[in-house]
Amino acid sequence: MTAREFFSRVRQRLVRYGVGELLAGWWFSRRLTRHGIIVASDGHPWPKVINRGGVIHTENCQFYSGVRLEVGPGGRIEIGNGTYLNRNTEVHAATLVSIGRTCKISWDVVIMDSDMHTLPGRVSEKPVVIEDDVWIGCRSIVLKGVRIGRGAVIAAGSVVTKDIPAGAIAGGVPARVLSTVKEAADRG
């Protein structure tokens, strides 16, 4: 990105978000390994980063109050351009959590690639991949080893324990495919 493009984007964001949210985003982004233009919205508690020796790469993103990004030694969090994480969302990565572009993550969502403890004879860490254009509803939980396909929608309160295909609408505990985005649009 050229300097001219960068300042053009900053100007656009100043008009949309204001100086306060951009300054808060700049302050928050100091703890990230690599980042684009970050917007931190809605004040206290500010978004928080806990980095225990991993890598956090974000593109141009928006983080609301209470968001927490936590990465362990050798872990990696990747968040794509245009994605936002709403209030009190937590992302925990022991190996990899990858969130694609233009994803919409609602309030109180937890995304984690680990059991946070080990059990004898069991693998406790598997990467989580959330592809582009995914919507995840309020108070959902995405557990280790899951891939959510492009354009999928996860209903509020779901616990995602298995892969969700692209374009699917999934919900429940554990989450299962209920419909597709195309079928819902045809009915709508």
In quaternary terms, these chains amount to single chain
What structural class results from the helix and strand content? alpha/beta
Order of helices and strands: HHEEEEEEEEEEEEEEEEEEEH
How much of the sequence lies in strands comes to: 25-35%
| Mean of pLDDT | 91
Largest sheet composition: 8 strands, mixed
Distance from first to last alpha carbon: 40 Å
Low-confidence stretches: none
Quantity of strands, as a count? 19
Helical residue percent? 10-25%
Report a brief summary of the structure.
This protein has 188 residues and is α/β, with parallel strands linked by helices. The protein has helices spanning 3-17, 19-29, 181-187, and strands at residues 38-41, 48-51, 55-58, 61-64, 68-71, 76-79, 84-85, 90-93, 96-99, 104-105, 110-112, 128-130, 135-136, 141-142, 147-148, 153-154, 159-160, 168-171, 176-180.
Would you mind describing this structure in some detail?
A hairpin with a 4-residue loop joins strand 18 (168-171) and strand 19. The strands form three sheets. An eight-stranded mixed β-sheet has the order 1-4-7-10-13-16-18-19. Strands 2-5-8-11-14-17 form a six-stranded parallel β-sheet, with no helix packed on it. With 188 residues, the protein is an alpha/beta fold. It is globular. It is 18% helix and 32% strand. The model has no long low-confidence stretch (mean pLDDT 91). The protein has helices at 3-17, 19-29, 181-187, and strands spanning 38-41, 48-51, 55-58, 61-64, 68-71, 76-79, 84-85, 90-93, 96-99, 104-105, 110-112, 128-130, 135-136, 141-142, 147-148, 153-154, 159-160, 168-171, 176-180.
